[in-house]
Amino acid sequence: MPKTPVELPSPATELRERFQQHLQRLGLTGLDLEAHLAWTKANKPGDLEAAERLLAQAVALKRERSIEWRIKGSGLRARRTMATFDWDFQPKLDRRTVEELFTLAFLDRHEDLLLTGKSGTGKSHILQALTLKACGHEWTVRYARCVDLIDDLYAGLADGSYERRMKHWCRPVLLVIDDVGLGQLKRREDEPTAAHILFTLLDRRHSHATTAVSSNIKLSSWGKYLGDATLAAAVLDRLVGNAVHIDIDGPSYRQHLVHQRAGAQPGLEPMPAQDPQ
Questions:
Q1: Of 232, 251, 236, which Cα lies nearest the Cα of 122?
Q2: How confident is the model at residue 140 (pLDDT cuts 50, 70, 90)?
Q3: Which end of the chain is less enclosed by CB atoms within 10 A, N or C?
């Protein structure tokens, strides 16, 4: 019997296959080649315009992936933006000052940021939104609650990786330390105080990288919380001397929501808020 002739792929098919291999090699498998070819057929652009459009799509895809990688690596758990911030609930908060932060110009100036105020007044919301914004501009950002950051560095003292971990926290363009004053700091007798660790970190970052901090306790109480009044004063000296300081003097939004729910459900007792907003 005569053999069935083998159907060879067309030159166009081979070209598409090679193109997809190139995209895979470049990490651009999400690029929609067929959509681009359809656009060129419909619009009949010049060669340079068609090439530029394809490159622009590749750049946009790489940027999108870069931003997502930075967000996932930042330690951020909640992706909050200022679009959901209730400005009317905090009428004493200077909106213009807060919105100026979101230009991220203070990162270029290596200025620090200190947000203070009672629990639930929006400090964490602002810091989380800033983290997301900085990631969107492809800055290197790390976000952590103060107690988690200190625990990580204490773990480094225990397993000999302290210096490596300290360098990890020193590296980001923006380091966000949320909730100073919330959570118990654990320390053994032979270990340095949290104040010592925090001072070392801020001293290494001072004047060349931005650190944003929030606290729901008075600055005068940092010494007691961090375990050393003298070093806590030095921490604040490093921080406040080069920082934008915003004190949010207003009610707790979380308590407001709790009371709203209690009013909607007779017999439900309002519970005290545990974590700042």
A1: 251
A2: very high
A3: N
CB atoms within 10 A of CB 263: 10
Q: Three-state SS string across 172-239, please?
A: CCEEEEEEECCCCCCCCCCCCCHHHHHHHHHHHHCCCCEEEEEECCCHHHHHHHHCCHHHHHHHHHHH
Mean pLDDT of 25-39: 84
Q: Which residues contact 149 (CB under 8 A, 6 or more apart)?
A: 169, 177
DSSP state for residue 275 in the 8-state scheme: S
- Residue 137 is encoded by which pair of tokens? 């501009």
How many residues are listed for the chain in this entry? Answer: 277
pLDDT digits (tens, 9 = 90+) for 48-58: 998 899 889 99
Contact indicator for 149, 169 with CB cutoff of 8 Å: yes
Cα first-last separation, the chain: 80
